[in-house]
Design brief:
Blueprint: H1 3-46, H2 51-81, H3 84-91
Helix pairs in contact: 1-2, 1-3
GO cellular component, one term: plasma membrane
Family: Belongs to the ATPase C chain family.
Organism: Arenimonas oryziterrae DSM 21050 = YC6267
């Protein structure tokens, strides 16, 4: 296999992997925030006096869930723009 075909193959598989990383990360973050939001609304309806405390914790957890997704996006963008697999291919 020549270098051009191998480079195209690595880029194609990397693109598929990026789509899977970002897609599954987005689905997981959306499901996590949806479940957390529904539990927040349920607990706020049961005990309205705890809403300020629960709201602060809900926003903290929403930030952590989004941070995990954004870390996955950052790793995916690293592979999209500075693919270390291509440098190993050229060196080898």
């Amino acid at each position: 296999m020549d270098l051009l075909a191998a480079t195209a193959l690595v880029q194609a598989y990397t693109s598929l992997g990026l789509g899977i990383i970002i897609g599954l990360g987005a689905i997981g973050a959306c499901v996590g925030i949806g479940i957390m939001g529904s539990k927040f609304l349920e607990s706020a309806a049961r005990q309205p006096e705890l809403v300020p405390m629960l709201q602060g914790r809900m926003f903290l957890l929403a930030g952590l869930i989004d941070a995990a997704f954004l870390i996955g996006v950052a790793i995916a963008m690293f592979f999209a723009f500075a693919n270390p697999l291509l440098s190993k291919l050229v060196a080898g």
